[in-house]
Design goal:
heterodimer; A: alpha+beta; Lipocalin; eight-stranded antiparallel beta barrel; about 15% helix; B: alpha+beta; two-stranded antiparallel ribbon; 7 helices; 14 strands; rod-shaped
Chain lengths: ~140, ~400
């Protein structure tokens, strides 16, 4: 019995050598989202028309803007919805209006033009208050 | 005969008529006023004179009209000249006003900058104040010093393995996780960096982003705020040592909400974090099975940390960081124990807070017998429990009244 135990331990010790260390490094505990290296360029009308959903929101607005969806139609119509936090309860805000491109900038409802870039089925809208990256999606 | 008769009769008649006329002329003169010419009135108006008079009148009228028009156009010209002059004056005034407004805006920016700096100084000063009786944590210390962002938590460093060591238990988040997290990760983004905002002024006014109306006071460092854990960006785990090799168990099945004023974390910080015990993954199915048996996940499906107090070691309002000890009650395997965990809290560019910390736990204290195989291969009873949470502000929380913090702690 004693020899069986020793043999078993030897086998286990041998097998354990094949098992890689599996301790999470203290520097790697936080979730790291892989960033795709995208080559952003000026957006065209073809880039904008379609249904988009937010992929990433950063900057000051991220504190209160949780999720954003847009539909940009070819005839200049758009509608948008955003889940806004910060009040007593989360609330969805919806918009309907017109959009157009002013050079490489996006104008919603004749408001201030905002920086717009496109890359790989994505739109990046940049304002002084934050950056919104939208990903083209399929309407199901 | 008859012809001569009638001739003579005609002559006689004519002579008679002439005689009668002469006789009448002689006899009647005293009674008949013979008018040799027509009176002026009887002749009527002279058309030529009338036309001439009309033409003269029209000429006068035209002359008067021309004079009037000249005067009128002169007046209009004067008015236009006056308007042009007024416009020029107004343009000058507008330029002056614009310049003045720009000056005022610059002054406003300067004042706001000074105000932000003053608020930071004030927050630091408040944090540096000695605890006031009735509001200080019982037995707690609130030593405030600047945070050295470069220095690592020595406790963390002493219990961590080499950074170069591979970590099989931490695969990169799935695409779904990444998609679900509509926010930036803690690592820098390639996008244009949004400025890290200075502490905001409290208020309820709305601000816009792409025509959406956003609350301007969703988060402020010196404001008591509710934070919700973002599971897809958060992880909780443990590091265990065994006679064969060390391993970690990790999960992102986390729920939780925290309430704190980061500038004054000792004032009534609280929260609750729940972890699904079954979801802890060590990377080996057999080992997971043993771990779940020892945790009795069927009977105790969650691990719960009730955060009840925070002892601040340092608060850096300018850098929006703080360090201290989170205290509370940890429930594992149906056993609740008071625990204290050193944590580092920071606000990222997306106004989320990151919370990282760790503490040592004795499994036996929670009624968990360390796994052992054949009495020779065993896991040490002490495990290093760690958290790496990301929480987003979800709203303001009621301020803590004086004395509540002491009671809470």
């Amino acid at each position: 019995m004693r020899s069986e135990q020793v043999a078993c331990v030897c086998v286990l010790a041998a097998t354990s050598a094949c098992i890689a260390p599996s301790v999470v490094a203290s520097t790697g505990r936080a979730v790291a989202v892989e960033e795709r290296a995208l080559e952003w360029r000026d957006a065209t009308t073809a880039d904008v028309v379609g249904f988009f959903e937010s992929e990433r929101i950063s900057g000051e607005v991220a504190a209160s803007l949780a999720r954003v969806n847009y539909v940009f139609a070819a005839d200049g119509y758009y509608t948008g919805a955003a889940l806004v936090l910060g009040g007593e309860h989360p609330e969805y805000q919806t918009l309907v209006g017109t959009w157009r491109l002013d050079g490489a900038r996006l104008v919603l409802d004749d408001g201030e033009p905002v920086e717009l870039a496109a890359a790989d089925e994505r739109l990046r809208i940049s304002t002084p208050d934050g950056v919104l990256v939208l990903r083209r999606a399929a309407l199901e | 005969m008859n012809g001569k008769f009638f001739k003579w009769l005609g002559v006689a008649a004519v002579l008679g008529v002439g005689a009668l006329a002469v006789a009448a002329l002689v006899l009647v003169p005293p009674r008949v006023n013979v008018v040799m010419g027509e009176p002026e009135a009887a002749r009527g108006p002279d058309p030529v004179s009338a036309v001439a008079a009309d033409v003269a009148g029209l000429r006068e009228d035209l002359r008067a009209l021309a004079g009037g028009l000249e005067n009128g156009f002169g007046g209009v010209a004067d008015v236009l000249d006056g308007l042009a002059t007024d416009d020029a004056k107004r343009a000058v005034e507008v330029r002056e006003l614009t310049s003045r407004v720009e000056d005022l805006q610059r002054e406003l920016v300067a004042v706001r900058t000074e105000l932000a700096a003053s608020r930071v100084e004030l927050s630091n000063a408040i944090a540096a104040l000695p605890p006031v009786a009735g509001s200080a944590p019982s037995g707690g210390k609130t030593a405030v010093r600047p945070v050295d962002g470069a220095s690592a938590n020595p406790d963390v460093a002493s219990n961590s393995t080499s950074p170069a060591e591979p970590a099989p238990q931490q695969p990169p988040p799935s695409a779904a996780d990444t998609e679900a997290a509509t926010a930036s990760a803690s690592k820098p983004e390639p996008e244009p960096a949004a400025p890290v905002a200075a502490p905001q002024e409290s208020g309820s006014k709305k601000k816009g982003f792409l025509s959406f109306k956003l609350p301007s006071d969703a988060f402020a460092f010196d404001q008591r705020t509710r934070f919700a854990v973002v599971p897809t960006l958060s992880r909780v785990g443990f590091d265990a040592k065994s006679t064969l090799h060390d391993f970690s168990g990790v999960t992102s099945r986390i729920e939780g909400e925290l309430v704190a004023c980061l500038a004054r974390p000792a004032d009534g910080a609280s929260g609750r974090i729940t972890v699904e015990s079954r979801s802890l993954d060590t990377g080996l199915a057999d080992r997971d099975e043993v771990m779940r048996e020892h945790l009795d996940v069927a009977k105790f499906p969650t691990l719960v940390f009730e955060w009840t107090a925070f002892e601040a070691e340092s608060v850096d309002a300018a850098a929006q960081k703080l360090r201290g000890t989170a205290k509370g009650k940890l429930s594992i395997h149906g056993v609740a124990k008071d625990v204290a965990m050193k944590v580092d809290v920071a606000v990222d560019a997306s106004k989320r807070i990151t919370i990282q910390g760790q503490t040592k736990l004795d499994m036996k204290a929670f009624g968990i017998e360390p796994p052992s195989q054949l009495g020779l291969i065993s896991v040490e009873k002490d495990v290093n429990v760690w958290i790496a949470l990301v929480a987003r502000p979800v709203g303001r929380a009621d301020e803590v009244k004086a004395g509540e913090s002491a009671d809470a702690q």
